[in-house]
Here is the input.
Amino acid sequence: MNKEYLNYINNFRGFVIILIVGVHCLSSQLLQWTSSSDTRYFLHSLLHGSSVFYIFIAGFLFQFLIDKYNYFDYLSQKFKFILLPYLFLSVPAILDEIYSPKEIYASLPVWKQVLIYYSTGIHMSHFWFIPMILIYYLISPIFVIINKNYKNYLVIPFLMILTVIIPREISPVHNPFLSGMHFLGFYVFGMWISCRRKEILNLSNYYFYGFILFVIIFFCSWIMSFYQNKSEYFLQFLYVIKFSVMCVVILMFFYKYDQKMGRAMNFLAAPSFGIYFLHNYLIVLGEKILMRMNIQIEGGLVKFGVSIILVTVLSYFLVRLTKMMLGKSSKIFIGC
Here is the structure.
């Protein structure tokens, strides 16, 4: 496997986990934003849906490693390093939900509540991703078939249409199958970019095109921040454009500056799954501490940046501590 390739992809992964933490800090009660805050609207429109990058990278790496693909070995690995940590780290959140159940689940027996939480990931705001990505693992032979003929990638525009018309359902009852259909286009798009990576990444030498793509990203984000009440399909169309372009631009950026950056983001890439699994627990803990101390922190760009740094750093050290205590066994508990 090409080490240079792994380096810029790892830098991308490290960057993405910061975005994911940022999304959840923004939607939390760590900071108190005014209802009319333009800064929050813009940050929301820019960052919301950053899970797309994880899905894009997953598709990219799946295609890159496809020659080594074996269905049962693949599922075995995902079972140990994705499903088991999810089952284990869901326990505290599920116990909390059962102790104070949502109204729609209050009348259900405990075993049904547990089944619903595990199958949907609704017990923690970021866990919706796991049941959905597990579906991709199960249907991975379909992705192998798509990759066998380059013309099969012509399905991408049709999958992106599904992204526009099928909502990403998170609450009150998350449907992982609908979410899977919603994000499928980005996964296959990542596969296609990997398939054509040499030609596409060479475009990073053209600053002019990079500038145009940046303008498109900024323009779409700006429109989305000020037209929240417009047609849902219109917003979803902008969403598809924004993230499709951002996936390519960010990949180009880390490729172009790979040698200059070195392993700058690798320290976050390696424990990224652990940070993903743990960071929201730290956010919830922070919310409870602030509430208990009756402290309200007004939202702002600098304070938002500080909250991201704090949560990311604390999550990183919690992962390191867990790895020191559990050694190689940490992979089945926190995914890394």
The chain has one domain: 3-334. The radius of gyration is 20 Å.
